[in-house]
Design goal:
With about 70 residues, the chain is of the alpha+beta class. The protein has one domain. Helices cover about 45% and strands about 20% of the residues. The protein is built from two helices and two strands; from the N terminus they run αββα. It has a two-stranded antiparallel sheet with strand order 1-2.
């Protein structure tokens, strides 16, 4: 019985880790694009912009999403 639990845990954990990375890739910005938190109407909204436009957006107060992809 203990052996079955170890086997189940050994199989489930890698599948969960892989699925987290897979979901992150599915919702990632397209190539050449980047997600930013754009400050508009007194709140941040996530938009996708060209990588070339990133410095200008950061210069006027926009920020990058946190490690979890959330805006402030």
């Amino acid at each position: 019985m203990r052996r079955m639990r170890r086997l189940a845990v050994a199989l489930v954990i890698p599948v969960l880790v892989f699925s987290v990375f897979l979901v992150g890739e599915v919702f990632a910005a397209p190539a050449g694009k980047v997600a930013v938190c754009h400050f508009a109407n007194h709140k941040y909204v996530e938009i996708t912009i060209s990588e070339n436009a990133l410095p200008a957006h950061l210069a006027h107060g926009d920020v990058l999403p946190d490690d979890y992809g959330n805006c402030p």
